[in-house]
Amino acid sequence: MNTKIFFQIAFFFAIAMTAKAQQILTVEDAVKIALENNYEIKIASNDLKIDQQNVSLANAGVMPQLNANVTDNNSIQNTTQTQSDGSERKLNNARNMNLNYGVALNWTVFDGFRMFARYDQLKELEKLGDAELKLAIFTKVSDVISTYYNLVQQQQQLKALDTAIVISNLRVTTADNRYKIGKASKLEVLNAKVDLNTDTTTLLRQKELYANTKIYLNEILGRDVKTEFAVVDEIAIDETLLLPELMTLAEKQNPQLQTQIINKRISELQLKQVKASRYPTVNITSGYNFSRTEASLGFITQSTGQGFTYGFNASMNIFNGGLQNRNEKAAKIQVENSKIVVEQQLQTLRSQLSSAYQTYLTNLELTKLESKNEEIAKENLDITLAKFKIGTIAPLEFREAQLNYVNAKVRNSNAQYAAKVSEINLKELAGNLSLSQN
């Protein structure tokens, strides 16, 4: 018996030393790593950079266009010319050349304010990209924090199952000693060993789940999935959340709601651009050109010219078969739809918050209840274990007390995790998911 106790102590000492040797990963560190490495966040961040680059006067059509042009046409022809007096002139392989080059300026100075509406739309698209980035960050940070505390929960359950193994080993040892001195049957020893094997199987399954969850957390952190780390021992729950405050924050900060509000503004600006077609479009043109012409046969064999050109053109749609009215009606319907979507998103958000808050309150109550249950189960186990050692209680009753204690610890751990997830969901909906979760 002393040898077995020695090996048990050595085993748990080795586990403790291994945990200390591993790097402790805090939830703040996990979030920081995800923000730097996660692929989805990187893609959303790059999309925002594209939207930022698109916000320019040139992209909106406000700036003039200056182009350099060159045209060089050449020909070799057998040419016959008939003069006004009836005489003919002929030349084979007559060479002709026409060269033009220069710069041309084209500037739309008025298009019914379409260009300004387009510029405002590009700004709104940038805001939309920013809202989508925030949504990607919140979603991934929520996933990271939930997975992290899932590991904490599983770690707590591993400790509970480790305790069950220690107790089951003690039971096997006690039953074997009692059997050797004739105070217990072989059946009692066998039952104790079967229960030990059952507890060991449960522990192995829990270790497998714990290892796989660590792999998943490394994956969403965007690092080597084999990276070893340890997590903290406890789950701290924020019990101060209030529904009215969460509602106010959500209406101002929720990324999904903000996305729909921005989409509504984009639809309104699109309608402005459609209406701009009712106004005339005025363009200014200018340039500086050089031309050279050569001909082997003709009155003028060579001519050159250079200088400025300038002018303007204006156009206005008078009738296009009713397309203008149709386009405006479609754009107005799209604006109306975007308003409806905003109202729908707001209603959905309020519903989700109310439901999530009720779940949050229930889970807080369950954490208190399960904590008390664990204390009661621990006290019951201590009393039962003392009686079992002196042989005044049946093995079946001891096993029942042991399972009650382990199940109470597991339920308490599950309740804490459920309450933490409820807290995370509420803060995510409110757009107020802080990086400080301890």
Automatic annotation (TrEMBL):
PANTHER family: OUTER MEMBRANE PROTEIN TOLC
Signal peptide: 1-21
Chief place of localization: membrane
Keyword annotations: Cell outer membrane, Membrane, Signal, Transmembrane, Transmembrane beta strand, Transport
Family from the record: Belongs to the outer membrane factor (OMF) (TC 1.B.17) family.
Protein name: TolC family protein
GO MF annotation list: efflux transmembrane transporter activity; porin activity
Source organism superkingdom: Bacteria
Family matches, as SUPFAM superfamilies: Outer membrane efflux proteins (OEP) (SSF56954)
Pfam families per UniProt: OEP
Keyword Cell cycle on entry: no
GO CC term, one of those recorded: efflux pump complex
Compartment annotation: Cell outer membrane
The UniProt record lists the keyword Glycoprotein: no
Cited InterPro entries: OMP_efflux, TolC-like
